[in-house]
Design goal:
Blueprint (H helix, E strand, L loop, with lengths): L2 H24 L4 H22 L7 H9 L19 E3 L2 E3 L2
Antiparallel strand pairs: 1-2
Helix pairs in contact: 1-2
Length: 97
């Protein structure tokens, strides 16, 4: 995996973990709002990785999702397929965030 994506995804996982801990402690945000936060942060992470390493390439479908700010899965089930991004090709490597 390209270093910019690896580092970004590791940071996003830390964000994810802290968001879950906050939800367990406070229960003051609905699951749908949590999912929206996680998706927005993941999209921002990928956009930041692309800015840091312009040589990275995503397939056109993924670029369209990132450019629109839309969720890659809509409508979504907060307890089922929430926020799943389809496997995408990055350069010559394949990853599934």
């Amino acid at each position: 995996m390209p270093p910019a994506l690896r580092a970004g995804f590791r940071g996003w996982i830390g964000y994810f973990n802290e968001l879950v801990v906050d939800h367990i402690r406070h229960h003051d945000l609905e699951i749908g709002a949590l999912v929206d936060l996680l998706i927005a942060a993941l999209v921002a992470t990928v956009q930041a990785a692309l800015a840091a390493a312009p040589e990275l390439e995503l397939n056109p479908e993924m670029l369209a999702v990132l450019g629109s700010g839309a969720s890659p899965t809509a409508p979504r089930d907060p307890l089922g397929g929430a926020g799943r991004i389809q496997t995408s090709a990055v350069g010559s490597q394949t990853f599934a965030p």
